[in-house]
Amino acid sequence: MFELPEVATLSRQMNDTLAGKTIAQGSLGNSPHKFVWYNRTPEEFEKLTRGKVVGPTRCRGRWLFIPLDPGYVLLFGECGGKVLYLPGPLDRDLPGLFGRDLAPGSQLPAKYHLHLTFADGSALTAATQMWGAYELYEAGQEQDRQYVKGMRPTPTDPEFTLHYFSALVDSLLSGEKRSVKALLTQEQLIPGLGNAIAQDIMFRARLHPRHPIAELERDQRQALYSTIVHTVRKAIDQGGRYDEFDLYGRPGGYVRLMDSKAAGQPCPECGTTIEKIQYLGGACYLCPQCQTY
Ligand SMILES: [Zn+2]
Fold first, then answer.
1. Distance (Å) from CA 210 to ligand 1 centroid
2. CA–CA separation, 128 vs 38, rounded Å?
3. Do residues 15 and 56 make contact, with C-beta atoms less than 8 angstroms apart?
4. For labeling, which of 125, 195, 247, 291 is most exposed (least CB within 10 Å)?
5. What is the CA(174)–ligand 1 centre distance, in A?
6. Virtual CA dihedral for 38, 124, 130, 31, nearest 10 degrees?
7. 218 to each of 122, 205, 211, 251, how far by Cα in Å?
8. Integer Cα distance of 279 and 178 in angstroms
9. Interval between CA 44 and ligand 1 midpoint (Å)
10. Quick check: 130 pLDDT over 90?
11. Sign of the C-alpha dihedral computed for residues 223, 215, 211 and 243 taken in this order
12. What is the pLDDT of residues 35-47, one digit of tens each?
């Protein structure tokens, strides 16, 4: 599933590639999927998207906001899988920009959940894994969508300061006992983070996933804050994780420190064998020596 770095990468690339294109035809999926959320019928979607011009895409957390001017916003939310640009005839002059499997004239994937063709012959397809939203709103109404409305500051927002982060942790101390992994991955307390990037954040902050947030020392809070910001920024700068794909079908450049490939290998810091545990609905990979609990 995409996390903030992958969504930010797609947003940037959509701005570079799609902005200004006119939609010739918009279609919803050819592949029924129980956990893909639409808010329009295929007929409505086609009618409302025809002739619209793509505006500047932006993102927050795991959500992409794609203006379709005039008057609409296309929302991609909490998706995974592939969002792919299929070059058109006019892209032939851009050698090296696209992977071999995305040469101009590339075929449409066999299964997709959304497909936009543009007047210049290029196209966009999206096919998610597990779940995801592809919804079309009248501009402004997308802000009222559940999970978008009231979204807390994300690690790339200017409001995500150490002061904010510390106040967030304080606000969570009175309720149920939470661990560092719960803080990073549950209830979108920090929107955009997920189980993948959380592993590297916890390793860099030297905190065990089960470490209670109530017992974080002042310097541990600061370390956790700065590793969240640093790790997200680094993964965005490198075009997302290496096990996900960008708009052009290329894998991201951010190689995770702590993932299934690390399990059983020596810790890059101390040489202790990296462990895999199951905790809070997903695997965790950690160094039992470096990450305190
Ligand atoms: Zn270690």
1. 16
2. 13
3. yes
4. 195
5. 32
6. 70
7. 52, 13, 14, 37
8. 13
9. 55
10. no
11. negative
12. 889 999 999 999 9
User: Is the pLDDT assigned to residue 158 strictly greater than 90?
Assistant: yes
Q: How far is the CA of 22 from the centre of ligand 1 (A)?
A: 52
Mean pLDDT of the chain: 92
Q: Token pair for residue 188?
A: 């979108």
- The rounded Å distance from CA 48 to ligand 1 centre is 54
91 vs 146, higher pLDDT: 146
Would you give the end-to-end CA distance of the chain in angstroms?
A: 28
Contact 254, 275 (CB under 8 A): no
| Å from CA of 169 to ligand 1 middle | 26
- Range 84-99 average pLDDT: 71
50 C-alpha to ligand 1 centroid (Å): 55
Q: Is 164 exposed, middle or buried (0-12, 13-18, 19+ CB in 10 A)?
A: middle
Q: Identify which has the larger pLDDT, 155 or 131.
A: 155
- Residue position matching structure tokens 């541990």: 220
